[in-house]
Amino acid sequence: MSSSFDFKVTGRDAKARTGLISTPRGEIRTPAFMPVGTAATVKAMLPDSVRATGADILLGNTYHLMLRPTAERIARLGGLHKFMNWDRPILTDSGGFQVMSLAELRKLTERGVTFRSHIDGSKHELTPERSMEIQRLLGSDIVMCFDECPALPAPKDRVAESMALSMRWAQRSRDAFGDRPGHALFGIQQGGTERDLRAESAEALRGIGFDGYAVGGLAVGEGQKTMFEVLDYAPDMLPEDRPRYLMGVGKPDDIVGAVARGIDMMDCVLPSRSGRTGQVFTRHGALNIKNARHQDDPRPLDEACTCPACRSYSRAYLHHVFRAGEMISGMLLTWHNLHYFQELMQGMRDAIAAGRFARFRQDFAAARAQGDIDPL
């Protein structure tokens, strides 16, 4: 186990990469999918259960934790890892996206953002310096720069203005982060779908210097086709020897397509949120456990899956407990979805290392095209 933050690429297949991020709290195998623990918990899961799915790292949310229970309280109680009983790496986002999407009465200035809490209407200010302070109090292993991200589509001048502000905030984040051995700071590339703005942003970030780099400002309404068009060039603008993180993505086919384009890390609420609402991801695509066709089906969700939901329970049972509103439904379906996502990541890591990632993508697409198992 490393006493510092380090990244090594151990295998390549075209643009796809597999490797290892070393941190004082443990290693992160890449490509990596990070389950989202917004409020210091992955909903419907115990930390040991999340680890059992194969997750090496979780994501925590600065905005939510600063409002409740507050970063200061978490620090007094020993930091986020101890607070939530997760002893492996944690990445925290900067809070900027949630301020823009959730907070009320926002006011954006050069200094930062003032806003009212969506919980109780209390007034707060979030700046690059305050974001770094909150993430330090939480004890995050990987800290994200404070940035601003407009929803897409947006006029180019609006995207350019936002990108330039984010780059100024990136420098302030770097300055405020300081020297913290064993902790990493990631810069965030912005620029929407504009190639020249993406290049300008990447140049600014390289000039500042970060431990890793995120591709931000995607999966915000532009659609998969457009996202992939940007990913065809955006990761290549970032340093080759640092992790590349695509924020807020996504669906299984989004993930496979992103890895094919050189992405090393991803996060999304989708597997846990979908599990609580009855959507299930399998090798053959998504299914809805609410549908009546499952009510007499004795088979598992996915006959090749080894998660507790598939190993011990039928579709008929899972349909029943979901329709009955039983808590075990969200627990089992979330576990299954997170297991599937981590199994997908391991499959890609193995395929890249063996030089057969193109075949992996073909098999992945073919299984999804086949659809769910035949009705009884």
Gist of the model:
This protein is of the alpha/beta class. Helices cover 42% and strands 20% of the residues. It folds into two domains: 6-267, Queuine tRNA-ribosyltransferase-like (TIM Barrel, Alpha-Beta Barrel); 275-370, no CATH class.
Give an overview in words.
By secondary structure, this protein is of the alpha/beta class. It folds into two domains: 262 residues, Alpha-Beta Barrel (TIM Barrel); 96 residues, no CATH class. It contains 15 helices and 16 strands. The strands form four sheets. Strands 4-14-13-12-11-10-6-5 form an eight-stranded parallel beta sheet. It has a three-stranded antiparallel beta sheet with strand order 1-2-3. The longest helix is centred in the last third of the chain and has 28 residues. It is globular. 48% of the residues are buried. The model has no long low-confidence stretch (mean pLDDT 96).
Topology record:
Blueprint lengths: L5 E8 L2 E8 L2 E5 L1 E4 L11 H6 L5 E4 H6 L3 H6 L3 H5 L5 E4 L2 H7 L1 E5 L4 E4 L6 E4 L1 H11 L3 E3 L11 H22 L6 E6 L5 H14 L3 E4 L8 H8 L12 E3 L5 H9 L4 E4 L1 H7 L2 E4 L2 E4 L19 H5 L2 H9 L3 H28 L2 H14 L6
Parallel strand pairs: 4-14, 5-6, 6-10, 10-11, 11-12, 12-13, 13-14
Antiparallel strand pairs: 1-2, 2-3, 7-8, 8-9, 15-16
Helix pairs in contact: 6-7, 7-8, 11-14, 13-14, 14-15
CATH architecture of the largest domain: Alpha-Beta Barrel
The biggest beta sheet reads:
8 strands, parallel
**Helical proportion?**
40-55%
Enumerate the spans where pLDDT stays under 50 for 5 or more consecutive residues.
Answer: none
The count of strands amounts to: 16
If helices are DSSP runs of H or I spanning 4 or more residues, what is the number of helices? 15
**Spatial separation of the terminal alpha carbons:** 50 Å
Spatially, the strands of the biggest sheet line up as: 4-14-13-12-11-10-6-5
CATH superfamily membership of the largest domain:
Queuine tRNA-ribosyltransferase-like
Number of domains: 2
Radius of gyration, taken over Cα atoms and rounded to an integer in Å: 20 Å
What is the CATH class designation of the largest domain? Alpha Beta
